[in-house]
Amino acid sequence: MSSKVQSKGAKAKDQQSPTPESPPPPEANAEAIQFLNSLSQEELQMLFFSETLVMVSNTGEPEGELTIEVQRGKHEDNSVAMSHCPLVHAFSRGFVDKMLCGNSLLGYLTWNLEILEQHSQEFIKFPILPMERKTSLLKQEGQLAMTRSIKDGEICPEQEVKTEVTFLPLHSTLGFISEAANLLLLRVMAWRQMVPSNARFLALDMEGKLCYSSYQALGSQTIQVDRLQAEVFIVEQTIHSEEGIPMSCQFYLLSDGHLAKRVQVGSPGCCMITKMPILREEDEIEPPPVFEKKPLPWEEDMELYSRFLERKEQLRLSHSRYLQQHPDAEALISDFMLFLLLRQPADVVTFAAEFFGPFAARRPPTPALRSSRPLSPFRSLDPSLDPAAGRGAQLARAPQVRLRRKAGTPGLDEEDLLSLLRF
């Protein structure tokens, strides 16, 4: 981790003795990494909604509002690539001891709650010395850039503005839970009604340094909201700062992830809802209906059977009329059956193709030189492979077969002849 501080002040004294070795940076454990990897896009999309809580004092008087909104957003990275991702927007404004204070948060996350970009700002309007703190996190070029800016005083001289830029390698931020990711992670825990046991995440303390963050389930409790009883799941988050005391916050969550109450341990006030929200439930996908094939006993139906007999008689009369109008067709079929019974070939299909082949309009011409490889009697389905295609081949003369054709009767092509066999 490297950092750069820009401020005006006294120069540091030369170190007289070597500094002791710094402790290794904190790392998230396997339980935390496994929990984050178990998240899915479908599960997170069920937790996209907005909610508003009221900030109340220890006496129950309202002092402000807290709004949290999670929605589907678009983020543009350095390569100008646009991607869909969870977008978390939260802001609060109120009065504490009659002093105006507030904060805002805008964060873009991956579907595993990794930080892409986050901007946060908090301020307290002290009567004499107002305070404002800004923090920006940006994932870029294999590292996480963090910029922290703090200014004090109503009229801010240049030396009272402190800006610190820190670069964290991405491998050291594995399991890091930002403020935006924490709001969505709590909804996931409420939706699953469980907290990963012994999970140790990473977070930023008040000084902007990496430290451990843990979650603990405190059980369930029934609270009253707008004269209605509601069951809440209590989760306590603790940020273990290495330089200060641990800071804990308790979240009272409804079954669908809505935040019913938020209590900062040691703070006199809290945030709570005043109206019961409509709880969201997971949509149950019903299996598609299965329509079984029912037998149709049409022979037993008088109307269907009558239609069948009428259609059968129409086809019989149509076939008879056609054969009467084309006696050459009947003669052709009779000749084919005669040759078939005389030769009795093993392959009837090939014999039929050779018999009716001379009647084809696109029959290739007989080669001048004989070949040991006989030509196939079947026509190619690919026109490019048909040697007679596109050459305007004339109808070849049929061999001497015993056909009783009338003078002037047009010839039948292969399709017409084969269609007669299907009757």
Automatic annotation (TrEMBL):
Gene Ontology CC entries for this record: cytoskeleton; nucleus; plasma membrane
Pfam families: CATIP_N
Subcellular location: Cell membrane; Cytoplasm, Cytoskeleton; Nucleus
Domain Ciliogenesis-associated TTC17-interacting protein N-terminal: 31-268
Residue numbers spanned by region Disordered: 1-29, 366-407
UniProt entry tagged with the keyword Ribonucleoprotein: no
Gene Ontology process terms (BP): actin filament polymerization; cilium organization
Alphabetical list of CDD domains matching this protein: DD_CATIP
Domain of life of the native organism: Eukaryota
This protein's UniProt keywords: Cell membrane, Cilium biogenesis/degradation, Cytoplasm, Cytoskeleton, Membrane, Nucleus
General function of this protein: Plays a role in primary ciliogenesis by modulating actin polymerization.
Name by which UniProt lists this protein: Ciliogenesis-associated TTC17-interacting protein
Organism: Molossus molossus
Lineage: Eukaryota, Metazoa, Chordata, Craniata, Vertebrata
